[in-house]
């Protein structure tokens, strides 16, 4: 075989392998940790589902990796990222300086509020000032607990529901307010306005992001690039809408008591 012909055949073979073959996927799956107990962001009914599950599915596709979920209690997600049991944690995790001491965070995929949910007037309080000295619930280890400690130091904080939910405690009269993620409070207040409302203004603003090990800067870079692409194409907004998630309307929910 002539030298020129051999060179041509090798060039053609290179083009076939590099351009015409199937997409090469990373053999390692992207292992995502979540408690999957916060609909519509993440839930489990035989299979994981929800906004964050769809978001992670799109991210894994962008990275050329298969998606695998590991269901863990919320308070163990950050430690699981640190010790390498999972690659990332995506479970409405609010970015805080305290959490940044242990993990890195992607650019936020949601910006929302921390709301104070009470019973509708006249049963519930009409302002945050009326909560002074009264029991207020927030889930332990969450940004809601952090917000209560930082912004409502004058209330009696309750951070253990003893097997119940914060809403159970509120309806039983054991607490006078529940501090929670804004989208969840919005769903309750708009779905049952005769029973619930949101005190205004919101207690705090927070951003949800994906937790990544500080030892994996390349994965962090890849996720940020994929998030930026999804955001620029309108995919994140479309997923939020598809799951009925409202991020910025909590300040307008619920009527105050008449003067």
Overall description:
By secondary structure, the protein is α/β, with parallel strands linked by helices. The protein has 2 domains: 28-109 and 209-242, D-Maltodextrin-Binding Protein, domain 2 (3-Layer(aba) Sandwich), CATH 3.40.190; 112-206, D-Maltodextrin-Binding Protein, domain 2. 35% of the residues lie in helices and 23% in strands. The protein has helices spanning 3-20, 51-63, 77-82, 97-100, 143-151, 166-171, 182-191, 217-232, 235-242; strands spanning 30-34, 37-38, 42-45, 47-49, 67-71, 88-89, 104-105, 110-119, 135-137, 156-158, 177-181, 196-208, 211-212. The strands form 3 sheets. It has a 5-stranded mixed sheet. Strands 10-9-11-8-12 form a 5-stranded mixed sheet. It has a 3-stranded antiparallel sheet with strand order 2-3-4. The radius of gyration is 23 Å and the shape is globular. The N and C termini lie far apart (97 Å). The relative contact order is 0.17.
Total number of helices: 9
Largest sheet: 5 strands, mixed
The CATH superfamily of the largest domain appears as Periplasmic binding protein-like II
In helices, the fraction of residues equals 25-40%
> What CATH architecture label of the largest domain applies?
3-Layer(aba) Sandwich
Helix-strand sequence: HEEEEHEHEHEEEHEHEHEEHH
Task: List the strand order in the largest sheet.
Answer: 5-1-6-13-7
Give unreliable regions as ranges. 3-24, 249-259
What is the rounded Rg? Answer: 23 Å
Count of separate structural domains: 2
């Amino acid at each position: 075989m002539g030298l020129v012909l051999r060179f041509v055949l090798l060039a053609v073979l290179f083009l076939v392998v590099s351009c015409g073959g199937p997409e090469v996927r990373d053999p390692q799956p992207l292992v995502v940790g979540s408690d999957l107990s916060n609909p519509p962001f993440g839930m489990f009914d035989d299979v994981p589902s929800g906004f964050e599950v769809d978001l992670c599915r799109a991210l894994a596709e962008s990275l050329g990796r298969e998606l695998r979920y590991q269901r863990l209690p919320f308070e163990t997600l950050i430690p699981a990222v640190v010790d390498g049991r999972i690659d990332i944690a995506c479970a409405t995790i609010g970015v805080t300086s305290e959490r940044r001491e242990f993990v890195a965070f992607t650019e936020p995929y949601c910006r929302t509020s921390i709301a104070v949910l009470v019973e509708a007037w006249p049963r519930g309080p009409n302002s945050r000032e009326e909560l002074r000295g009264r029991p207020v619930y927030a889930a332990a280890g969450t940004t809601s607990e952090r917000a209560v400690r930082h912004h409502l130091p004058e209330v009696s904080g309750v951070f253990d529901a003893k097997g119940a939910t914060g809403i159970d405690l509120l309806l039983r009269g054991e607490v006078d307010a529940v501090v929670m993620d804004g989208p969840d409070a919005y769903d309750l207040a708009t779905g049952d306005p005769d029973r619930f409302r949101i005190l205004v203004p919101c207690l705090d603003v927070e951003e949800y992001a994906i937790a990544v090990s500080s030892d994996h800067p390349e994965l962090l870079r890849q996720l940020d690039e994929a998030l930026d692409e999804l955001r620029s194409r309108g995919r994140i907004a479309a997923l939020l809408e598809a799951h009925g998630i409202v991020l910025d309307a909590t300040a307008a929910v619920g009527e105050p008591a008449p003067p």
